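Researcher: Going back to the complex we discussed earlier. I've cleaned up the inputs and rechecked each line, so this should be the final set. Can you rerun the prediction on the complete assembly and write out the structure?
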Amino acid sequence: MKPLMTLTATVVFASAGLVLADPLPSWSDTAARERIIAFVDSVTDATSDDYVTPSDRIAVFDNDGTLWGEQPVYFQLIYAVDEVKKMAANDPSILTSDALKAAAAGDYAALAAGGEEAILEVINVSHSGRSVADFQASVAEWLATAKHPTTGLGYDQMTYQPMVELLSYLRDEDFKTYIVSGGGIHFMRVFTEQAYGIPNQQVIGSYGNSAFEMVDGAPTIMKEAGIGFVDDKEGKPINIDRIIGKRPVIAAGNSDGDFAMIEWTTAGEGPRLGLIVHHTDAEREVAYDCDSHIGRLCDGLEKGPDMGWLIVDMAQDWSTVYTGDR
Amino acid sequence: MKPLMTLTATVVFASAGLVLADPLPSWSDTAARERIIAFVDSVTDATSDDYVTPSDRIAVFDNDGTLWGEQPVYFQLIYAVDEVKKMAANDPSILTSDALKAAAAGDYAALAAGGEEAILEVINVSHSGRSVADFQASVAEWLATAKHPTTGLGYDQMTYQPMVELLSYLRDEDFKTYIVSGGGIHFMRVFTEQAYGIPNQQVIGSYGNSAFEMVDGAPTIMKEAGIGFVDDKEGKPINIDRIIGKRPVIAAGNSDGDFAMIEWTTAGEGPRLGLIVHHTDAEREVAYDCDSHIGRLCDGLEKGPDMGWLIVDMAQDWSTVYTGDR
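Model: Rerun complete. Updated structure for the full complex:
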């Protein structure tokens, strides 16, 4: 009997090992976690009617407010303001407008009062007039030192650990994970590979104008002033169609800027999962939705559940919030 | 001694097997083939100074004239003209301009006489006002039946077999292969996966405007009139930076529309390969370069060799031309 007993013991230990390898350890044991795993199990089970072939396993994620924080203002805007401060310290004559003066003073209220035009000016001045390589070196330097005003964490430590785990879990199940964000492509690519395991070619976002120029005898991609494409609202499904050319199987967001992307995803034939991160946790993060000036979420909460979208309740469904809090 | 002899025989046969599995059987035994293989060997050899990590192995290919034919006119324009003919047969009242009348009559000379504006009108009428899905169904139907005027082959049989083999060889060596073409993304994606083994998300090209609309209650990507982006000349490196976010290691083209892309690629640090397909074969294909109305190649021939670019001489370096000729 001994060989059989040994075999049984091996099977028991192997099963225990399988159970222990929880793919989503920072998700609480709630219905949200259960639904995600059941969905992934069904689309990856070759015997299931819901089976999706690996080449069609596309999952798209908004970034700000979905994969990392976005309060009190988008982190990319904090970079832009810090950059204008730095530029003004070198050369105060660049402060030719109220918007730039507000930025140099770190006065976000005054900047917001100037509306979109003011913010665009600060983005233009901080993001253009240099090569992509120089811009990305500047963002990398900022990320290495800047700290968030309320958490004190580095910005790239403010990724949501449960979502980082979800990305990794999906890739283990042969999904291709994409970011589809209102944030800028050149800005995001400085940290997205390391923070999320997502390579540059799977980072989709907004971008400014570019030019191809000879600089010191070398062909160079220069960042220029002006908006090339805003990857928000209807722009998200349009950009997914242009760049990926396939309708995703999973789409995740946190604001009404993600509504069109999730709507288009879940309207596809076959199994689809729409997911919204609802910021309900005033203690560990910030509680906000329909009334927020950033990441406003009204339509998604009102219509999403009827369309079968999974609303993730951050306070209830996540046992950890920030990666840097672990 | 018998075991050793058996082992030796196995090694000999295994080596013979390796030699027989020629990755580029449709390339003649010339310096071009040798240089390509030497380059790939060096960047994939972990002990080489030229080693490139798999995640950076990006290879970009123009399509028209590089991966498939482009004479006597771009095949996408032939689709557009055939489509206008079909639309006019259903409803002659659409023929509201000389350009559309020329298209409906299949009169390419009259169409060319109308210049870019005339061609744009024919593209607009044939490519817009319907969903991406409907447009692609129409292209698929056309590809299944249309024949090239001089070869009599289906258009998707006019891919260049040596280039199809090169794509496959590079993927076997862990390269990610991309198309970066002046052709339209929605048009190309109908055949690129099957013809080249390149998935939709690695097909970069020109595109028209799109809209996200509710059609019969379903969210739909509609193709609209007007140009969104022309993926040609400086647009190619700009689009590679936007979509891939990495400088390629290999870039291949056939016309001066590819010059900027190859220039930017080969100006990068470390090993890079720029490749130009020179159409030298009047017998098996069409011989053309600097004086051609399509695929004009002057700068590449004049400056490319000094920059170390490999000029592939179709007549000399390819033993087969079209995939459909095998």
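Model: Worth noting: The CA atoms of residues 83 and 247 of chain A lie 37 Å apart.
Researcher: Good, that matches what I expected from the previous run.
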